Amino acid sequence: MLRKIVAHAAVVLAIAACGCASHHDDPQVLADETTRGVYDADYARTTEHFDAALKLQVTRGTIGQLSDQMHTLGAYRGLKLTSSDPDKGRYDYEATFDKGTMLVQMRLDPTQRIGAYRVAPQSSSTATR
């Protein structure tokens, strides 16, 4: 009986560990988490996956300004991959909002830290819906 309880506990722990495993090896997850941090004007969440050099370039003020720009487009709905070059760690996404889109460009270093992150408005001619 004790052996059966221990076996069940081990299975439960294994399932829990899988559920808690980091999905940070997925560039889209990193880009989305970072973009949500910017949208919420949350410095810690925005810079959580940045490398040391990029963290030095970002201020609470710049995050707040970018957040304000995002909020003019309404609620953030998510990202759609538009292009990628995984060998170079480069990923471009379209961030969708209620009233428009923005371009999110990200570069990952070999350790999956964000070495470059850029958000820019898209002109209506480049935005796709």
Q: Please give the CATH architecture.
A: Roll
Rg estimate, integer Å? 18 Å
Strands of the widest sheet, in order across it, are 1-2-3-4
Order of helices and strands: HHHHHEEEE
Strand content: 25-35%
Q: CATH fold name, please?
A: Nuclear Transport Factor 2, Chain: A
Folded structure, characterized:
The protein is of the alpha+beta class and 129 residues long. It has one domain: Nuclear Transport Factor 2, Chain: A (Roll). The chain has 5 helices and 4 strands, in the order H-H-H-H-H-E-E-E-E. It has helices spanning 2-20, 27-39, 43-47, 52-57, 60-71; strands at residues 76-85, 90-97, 100-108, 114-121. A 4-stranded antiparallel β-sheet has the order 1-2-3-4. A hairpin with a 5-residue loop joins strand 3 (100-108) and strand 4. The protein is globular and about 35 Å long.
Key terms:
43% helix; globular; 27% strand
Short description:
With 129 residues, this protein is α+β, with helices and mostly antiparallel strands. It has helices spanning 2-20, 27-39, 43-47, 52-57, 60-71, and strands at residues 76-85, 90-97, 100-108, 114-121.
Secondary structure layout:
Layout (H helix, E strand, L loop, with lengths): L1 H19 L6 H13 L3 H5 L4 H6 L2 H12 L4 E10 L4 E8 L2 E9 L5 E8 L8
